[in-house]
Design goal:
Elements lengths: L3 H14 L6 H14 L8 E2 L1 H8 L3 H13 L4 E3 L3 E3 L5 H22 L5 H20 L2 H18 L3 H21 L9 H13 L2 H23 L2 H12 L1
Antiparallel strand pairs: 1-3, 2-3
The protein binds zinc ion.
The site of zinc ion (ZN) has 6 residues, from helix 7.
Length: 243
């Protein structure tokens, strides 16, 4: 799987993000991250430094730096002497990451249940409103960002920075899985389900809150897994259509 579709995807995103106000590094980073999160890059596609440098009219040094950053964030797979690739997770890889989310987020729910301040509840509800606005506006990138951030915000409110950092990494992985295997829907999280969870947390109903979180993550996982084995054929069709 080479770079033809990938270039088209990135070039499309590049228009959205180019601005003289941000550095070349940030511009290239934002464009590639956005193309990944919008499912424009096929699993396993190689990101070739030379081709990216030409596409973005920047140096290979800039591209190398950006690819290293995306690799460190788990958004790309870096292979010594081979280069950077869009991750191509197996079904077992995917299950493992959602399982980790279930364990971590059950702990977060338990520590927050019945313990959220008025200010924290207000922030969570404002976040859900922002999700609804983004969905209405059809803003895919914003929907994905806000959906993931809701979960990280809960970890932040739990006051555990180590857990927050760990969860942010897990959420980034699942955002990517959603983009790779379930790119058709705008958001990977339903704002209604987020609202139900907030209600249960506010009421201090631990059973309801744990069930709400578990069901929510189960559904995200099920949608990704349903497509994980089937997406390659349609990706090839897309690649040839764009070539
Ligand atoms: Zn969610």
């Amino acid at each position: 799987m080479r770079f033809i579709a990938s270039t088209a995807g990135i070039m499309a995103s590049r228009k959205d993000t180019s601005s003289k106000d941000i550095s070349a590094d940030e511009r290239v980073y934002a464009a590639i991250a956005s193309a990944l999160l919008q499912g424009k890059l096929a699993p396993g596609a190689q990101l070739v430094e030379r081709e990216l440098a030409a596409a973005f009219e920047c140096t290979r040094g800039t591209i190398r730096k950006v690819l290293a950053r995306l690799g460190a964030e788990g958004k790309l797979t870096l292979e010594a002497n081979r280069g950077a690739f869009v991750p191509s997770p197996t079904v077992d890889d995917i299950r493992e990451v959602y399982r980790a989310r279930q364990v971590v987020e059950a702990g977060i729910v338990a520590s927050l249940c019945g313990a959220l301040s008025v200010k924290a509840l207000r922030a969570l509800r404002a976040h859900v409103k922002a999700e609804q606005r983004a969905l209405k506006a059809g803003s895919a990138a914003e929907c994905v960002r806000l959906a993931g951030h809701f979960h990280v915000l809960l970890a932040e409110l739990a006051g555990a920075p180590e857990v927050e950092a760990f969860l942010a990494r897990l959420v980034a992985k699942t955002e990517l899985y959603k983009a790779l295997f379930d790119p058709s829907k705008l958001s990977n999280c339903s704002s209604d389900e987020h609202a139900q969870l907030i209600d249960a947390l506010e009421q201090g109903d631990l059973d309801a809150a744990l069930t709400a979180m578990r069901t929510h993550i189960d559904e995200l996982e099920a949608r990704v897994l349903a497509q994980a084995g089937a997406s390659r054929t349609s990706d090839l069709a897309t690649i040839f259509a764009l070539a």
